[in-house]
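Sequence, please.
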């Protein structure tokens, strides 16, 4: 399979990177075995594997050859390349794709090398870091654009700016969010902004089990703990492994929050409304339909910057529906499943619906608006199992 085709499949793809060291932090995994890691990443669900071939990262072209012998997944040869000879050498070593770094290439050179990749039968990941480089990548016709959160001059990471650029990239390009992904929620943030894939290196290389870490980052469903009203409950949900935390701003709800409480950047915050949403500073907004006589309507949408990114299938307010799971399973696209989910029934619901995320509130409580921490831990564990 071609590199570009592997990244354009359904859901969020992942390029897992083999990297022994980083110029910004030093050694990551000096004894990394490219063959063993490439095979393990393929088994863990990687869409492609990136291999650093530059000595500043502890790599060589021989690492690419070793990885090629161990796996059939597409391989990205990653380094600093400026000539046709560089690209041909990578192709001959087994690369299915090569990195073209716009920071180091003028437009004429980048366009020439991009055309040469087509001539020799490999794809290119054209990397941008800022708005100017994104425009350049688009103008030279790059089919696959990587947007790096890391400034290679300072090594600083700006995920917020990366997400803004991901959202601005043309819909007809394959977009890869590079760097700064250490949690499932951070990968999901890139996905919701419009990324087709994430490229992950350092967080995998630092993990005790790199393949297990990759599997964690791309696994679904995400887990949302909603109806949070106290900081101690937010902190417990994050510690338990929740990916999203929800704050309800609805009149008449026993779980109305005082504010979007502080959360770490390892998770996503969600502000929940009925009817017209308000600006509360959350990462995402969940909006239910208004229905006379009850606190909320049945279904909702999940929004990012005002754009719908998922649908929410819920039960009627204080009502039942024996066809709820069957109805939810028929929804096309990204789905958040809600409706009296708890530790005892979430596994069966996931098997029946295969949602993008699961959402629980009332079934995790000791009292309305007060979370039972044991139930929160059990729910997150069951949903992630």
């Amino acid at each position: 399979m071609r590199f570009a085709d592997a990244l354009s499949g359904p859901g969020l793809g992942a390029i897992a990177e083999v990297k022994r060291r980083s110029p910004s932090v030093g050694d990551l995994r000096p004894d990394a075995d490219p063959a063993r890691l490439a095979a393990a990443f393929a088994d863990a669900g990687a869409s492609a594997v990136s291999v650093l071939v530059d000595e500043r990262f502890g790599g060589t072209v021989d690492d690419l050859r070793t990885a090629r012998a161990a796996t059939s997944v597409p391989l990205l040869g990653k380094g600093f390349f400026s000539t046709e000879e560089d690209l041909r050498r990578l192709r001959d070593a087994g690369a299915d794709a090569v990195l073209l770094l716009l920071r180091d290439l003028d437009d004429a050179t980048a366009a020439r090398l991009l055309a040469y990749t087509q001539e020799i039968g490999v794809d290119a990941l054209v990397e941008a870091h800022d708005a100017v480089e994104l425009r350049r990548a688009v103008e030279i016709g790059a089919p696959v654009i990587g947007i790096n959160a890391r400034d290679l001059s300072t090594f600083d990471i700006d995920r917020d700016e990366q997400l803004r650029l991901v959202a601005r990239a043309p819909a007809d390009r394959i977009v890869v969010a590079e760097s700064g992904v250490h949690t499932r929620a951070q990968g999901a943030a890139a996905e919701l902004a419009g990324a087709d894939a994430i490229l992950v290196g350092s967080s995998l290389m630092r993990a005790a089990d790199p393949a297990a870490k990759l599997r964690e980052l791309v696994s679904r469903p995400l887990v949302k703990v909603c109806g949070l009203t106290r900081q101690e409950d937010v902190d417990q949900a994050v510690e338990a492994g929740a990916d999203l935390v929800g704050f309800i701003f609805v009149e008449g709800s026993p779980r109305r929050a005082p504010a979007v409480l502080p959360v770490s950047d390892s998770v996503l915050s969600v502000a929940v409304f009925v009817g017209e949403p308000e600006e509360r500073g959350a990462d995402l907004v969940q909006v239910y339909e208004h229905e006379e006589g009850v606190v909320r309507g049945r279904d909702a949408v999940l929004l990012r910057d005002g754009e719908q990114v998922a649908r929410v299938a819920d039960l009627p307010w204080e009502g039942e529906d024996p066809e709820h799971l069957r109805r939810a399973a028929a929804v096309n696209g990204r789905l958040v499943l809600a409706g009296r989910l708890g530790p005892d029934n979430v596994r069966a619901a996931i098997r029946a619906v295969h949602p993008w995320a699961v959402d629980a509130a009332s079934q995790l409580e000791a009292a309305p608006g007060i979370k039972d921490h044991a139930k929160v831990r059990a729910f997150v564990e069951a949903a992630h199992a």
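Residues 222-384 form a domain with the TIM Barrel fold (CATH 3.20.20.70).
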